[in-house]
Amino acid sequence: MKTFKDSGHLFRLAAVFLVGLVGFLVLRSFLVPHSFGRYGHYRADAIPEIAATPISYAGHQVCETCHSDILEVKSKGVHKGVACESCHGPQAKHADDPASVQPAKLDTAVLCVRCHQASIAKPKSFPQVDAAEHSGGAACNTCHQPHSPALTGGSQ
Amino acid sequence: MNITRRQLLVLLPAAAIAWEHVLAGTPEASPNYNMSEHWWGMLMDITKCIGCGSCARACQMENHVPDGYYRTWVERYQVADWESETPTVDSPDGGKNGYPPPKKLGGKNFFVPKMCNHCADSPCTQVCPVGATFVSPDGVVLVDQKYCVGCRYCVQACPYGCRFLNPQTQTANKCTLCYHRITKGLTTACCEVCPTGTRQLADLKNPNDPIHEFLKTHSVQVLKPHLATKSKCFYYGLDGSVR
Question: Could A121 and B28 be called an inter-chain contact, meaning their C-beta atoms sit closer than 8 Å?
């Protein structure tokens, strides 16, 4: 037993290591978030946190539940594929509280031109006009009906 | 305790099912949304893009993106005749307010909407030193805003230039594929407002999604395929000059 004559030192050293290890594990359990590593090297709880962000755009299905009259006009025209909020902007607040939050009135002279201003980079099949030459800056809804833009007149 | 062979045969599958539950962890916040049933991507039919910038504007409003930063933007390309290696590209304010007439006329002109490609093998998540960015189990590259230390490694690593450091929070920010919308059954803000159907959200795990028929019948390309990032942003009608 000569080899281990001072084995007491080793036991003390082992005890120090053990205390250190336990301390590390205790500290780690406090510092590493509970959900870290559930799906990978990240905090799994971040996923439902990101998913819980409130929305701003209600989606056209929500608009159509109340504005079925507009949907009917729109579904017959070339703008049937254009969602309500493409032009009217985010309306989730209006959808939540239709009485007190009213959508802003739109300026068609600005709005229509965003899509329909003539540009060489646009697909040839897309209807385009040089707005200044076409109407001299007049509001488009003087002649066109935005929800179904045939040349009928009106300001729907 | 004695267990007969018959009892063991009943017990083993039961134990296996119980263990599955342990591995699956706690259920998610959205009750009707199961991450394992989805694998999200995006289709960009750039033959339809008119450069209206609706997507970039909607993205900014939906996700409160600070001015001068973009989670999605639209580039205008001008390729002079055969010089496809050196196209002229501009994207004034991300295309949110339209484009001035090109300086030179002629050549080939078109628009390309850009955004995070939600790569399955994303370079940006691999470089994060703290595990703040990751590919979610449904294939969306997300940033944990509470865990990000703002070191900008991911901003440099993204080969598509889709990340930025939010000056307000000093954390990395990027397209979340409107994760707060798609988990509620809505489409992304950019897809919602796209007037021409250029952008289409695609669920690659949903066999009924029209994306599968489209991919089967069209010549589709991803950006920088040589980087093998397994991009899930599929472009139809993409010109070779697009970088």
Answer: no
Mention the CATH class of domain B38-236. Answer: alpha beta
Q: How many CB atoms lie within 10 A of CB B153?
A: 17
> CB neighbours of B59 closer than 8 A, spacing ≥ 6?
B65, B70, B71, B72, B175, B189, B190
Number of domains within chain A: 3
Does this model's pTM top 0.95? no
Q: ipTM value, please give it.
A: 0.85
Of the candidates B33, B50, B176, the beta carbon closest to that of A50 is on B176
Same domain? A113 vs A155: yes
Neighboring chain A residues of B139 at a CB cutoff of 8 Å = none
Could you list the residue range(s) of the whole structural domain that residue A142 is in?
105-156
Of A53, A56, A115, the CB nearest to B61: A56
Q: For residue range B116-165, what is the model confidence (pLDDT) as tens digits?
A: 999 999 999 999 999 999 999 999 999 999 999 999 999 999 999 999 99
Instruction: Using only the alpha carbons of chain A, give its radius of gyration.
Output: 33
Answer yes or no: do B146 and A49 touch at CB < 8 A: yes
